[in-house]
Amino acid sequence: MRVFGYGIMGLRIGLFVAFICIKIGDIAAQTNSQDSSALLALTSGWRNLPPNWTGRDPCGNRWEGITCNDSRITAITLANMGLTGQLTGDLASLSELQILDLSYNRGLTGPLPQSIGRLSRLTSLILIGCGFSGRIPDSIGSLELVDNLSLNENNFTGPVPATIGNMLNLYWLDLADNQLSGSIPVSSGDTPGLDLLVDTKHFHFGKNQLTGTIPPSLFNSNMTLIHVLFDNNRLTGSIPSSLGLVRTLEAIRFDSNSLSGEIPSNINNLTLVNELFLSNNELSGPVPDLSGMNSLNFLDLSNNNFEATEFPQWLSTLQSLTTLMMARTGLEGQIPEEFFSIPQLQNVYLRDNQLNGTFSIASNYSRQLQVIDLQNNSIRAATLAPEYSFQLMLADNEFCQSPDLNSPYCNVQENLGSSFSTTANCSRLPQCTSEQISSPNCICAYPFTGTYIFRAPSALGNSDYFTTLQDHLLNTLRSYALPVDSVSLSNISVDVFNNRQMQLAVFPAGQDHFNRTGIIGLSFVLSNQTYKPPDAYGPYVFSANFYPYFDGFIRSSNQSHTGIIVGAVVGGSILLLLLVGAGGYAYYQKKRAKKAKQQANPFVSWDSHGTGGDVPRLKGARFFTLEELQKSTNNFSEANTVGSGGYGKVYRGVLSDGQIVAIKRSQLGSMQGSREFKNEVELLSRVHHKNLVKLVGFCFDKGEQTLVYEFIANGTLMDSLSGMSGIQLDWVRRLMITLGSARGLQYLHELADPPIIHRDIKSTNILLDERLIAKVADFGLSKLFGDTDQKGYVTTQVKGTMGYLDPEYFMTNQLTEKSDVFSFGVVMLEMVTARKPIQDGKYIVKEIKEAMDRTKDLYSLHRVIDPILLRNTTMLVGLEKFVDLALKCVQDDGANRPTMGEVVKDIEHIAKLAGMNPNADSTTTSQSYEGASGGNFGHPYSDNSLFQYSGSIPLTRAE
Predict the structure, then answer these.
(1) pTM for the whole thing?
(2) Which residues are identified as catalytic?
(3) Where in the chain is CATH 3.30.70?
(4) What's the CA gap between 2 and 563, in Å, rounded?
(5) CATH classification of 614-711, choosing from 3.30.200.20, 1.10.1040.10, 3.40.50.300, 3.40.50.720?
(6) Which is nearest to 201 in space by CA: 176, 231, 169?
(7) Distance from the Cα of residue 25 to its chain's centroid
(8) What is the pLDDT of residues 121-168, one digit of tens each?
(9) CA proximity to 18, closest of 562, 578, 583, 573
(10) CB–CB of 737/766 below 8 Å?
(11) How far apart are CA 905 and CA 885, in angstroms?
(12) How many Å apart are CA 150 and CA 937, to the nearest integer?
């Protein structure tokens, strides 16, 4: 009875509390009503918001990631929360907002709203590593108080807004790693430009598609710039002499453009410059005299068209130099012995010049030396100090031509790079779970991880630099009261854009994981440049990995609640259920019944015409309704279109769990056929390999034929080879992409059960992810080896894409795995030439065979090799073997072609020759060719073939 009495009393209290809350809720709220409404409207379509975002009072309830001053919202810092959605115009109503940091939320997509310019109090706009796209709005120039504008690592297109020149308080301007195009804006009349930003310290514009010349008025003596980074663009013309007026500069990068002319002579006025990158251009004239640049420690002038000149004596005066890179710069004469005594000298790359005489190193050489690369010069003799410890490369010099000489430094070598990782200081490593990592303090935990990318490093040559950076970072993070136990740095490398990068892991203190507040704090410190590394490391950017190991809800173990409190809670809950339940129960039951029916047989509508066979037998793929896909793509909006072809369009979508996917939707009336659709669903659900595109699921609902794949960020291989993606692939990266593709095909042929013939290998069916790892895609034409009783080949209709099509298969109608090998050989030739298989009526295989001369360097293929590769011919190690392998793959007789397993081994060997680790990680579709079976036909690529026509290529062969 006592318990029952407490329950009645609790029910009454619950009713009373509910009434009071309704009456005075607004009075108790601590958030300005306009701010509260604006934030709720802005995030109404977002997913994965922090769990404590309940109610309508962000300030009073201390919502994670929200900072308030009195009742006004002043900061939104939600970096690395896995958010998905778009920024809407509601953002502009947060009129007191000062900081907006949404970095590392790759599910945030769409354009920036024009109304963003109304945030008049904003001081920091940090959107690093998201998925935003479209033009950067001109209204951004109205944010006159912003000192940190970081929009790097997104998908922004169009020009750099000239209105940024109005943002006179800018300290940090970072628009790198986008797809921005057009010229560099400078002021003219009433039009602003970047030259007006005299107090800005950082211009970061690398890895875009900027074109035109560098305007001389971009630089002036009033500027206080520290970093000018315009690398990996498409700039032309000369370097203006006005650059020498900016005496505050410390880092300059104009490498990997198409700049020409002489380097201005006044560049040696920049005595504070630490890093100078001008490589991979078309610069001419004499090598500039840089004497007086006493702070210079990293100099890269490689791969230009300088006049032949003696080894500069002034180089020995640069006592801060750590790295000299002057490959293929026309150097002649003998290297003075004193050059190698520069105290901090670590790396010297002088290959492919005309250096001669005696290479000599005395006993006073720098003990920091790690690599000296003098390959392909004319050095006649070598005198070395005893017990030298650096890597010396002298292959292809006169000194190494003696038949009696057996010296390790006369072998062709590539720099093996640096490696370092934090080692745990304990006798035995702990046994961690599969997703945990042991910290340097030997504690199993879920660390916060990501990639540190240094855009202009001056050193990072040995473990001492790692240790310095690691200790500095740990102390800084702790100084901000962040819950950090230890940090670990590992795997230093140089990426395809000449940036140094390493992996960072930050381990939590006091528990095995971070909560959301900890991750927000860590991300903010690294995204907004709060953390400043030691000077030797140059400007950096941090790319965070998604962190899924947050706290769950904390459950109280307190058992001392009284019956009255329990009754109040129960009473309030019952009241709420009574009010809501009656209306919701019927709807819920109806929806539940419909869902149960659909889950019981999601293919109830499969193939109403009876042409596609049985329903697919799936292994892990998910069935999507049309409504789910409409919601994930904003109703298949044009803004989310990422590709198109004869089948229809490909859309970028964000699923309800935050996963980004590519949705391939067939056009109504233009479907490939239900049998092909079912075939692709079954095959993709069966195969699992890192070099194959993963099928997430499919939709066969309301007449739709839609496939849902993992999203591959960098599009097709053809996009990159043709320049459409803005990515420039060097030889090393092309080797890794070829190797990855070959491994994917090898898996299909040799490890899949049953084995699979792809039947449509081409450069548009090889995709590149965010790390440029290759993934084979599009299995709509694939066949199982087990489709017939004849092991090893099947007899079927001829299908494939002209230019890649196996001539033996074309003429005999017998499909074998060697047909894929032929197609892959054509792709390999595309890698070398960046040309389509059939271009201007010429067939790539025939062109290569006619042009090559095996007795000459690079087989005398300079006329057909991709000009991007020819910028640095000294790096094309293994290209001849690569071409040989490709030509083996395209033999007319399939029996003479290698298997994909043999192809993989050969490419791995070539990769090792090029100094690579072959085990390291590294969309318009062309029309498919399909012809009827039967008949005898000529070779599809003979001189009399249909490819000699200059018009369009027929899609079916003549009967």
Answers:
(1) 0.58
(2) 760
(3) 438-544
(4) 9
(5) 3.30.200.20
(6) 169
(7) 47
(8) 999 999 999 999 999 999 999 999 999 999 999 999 999 999 999 999
(9) 573
(10) yes
(11) 11
(12) 60
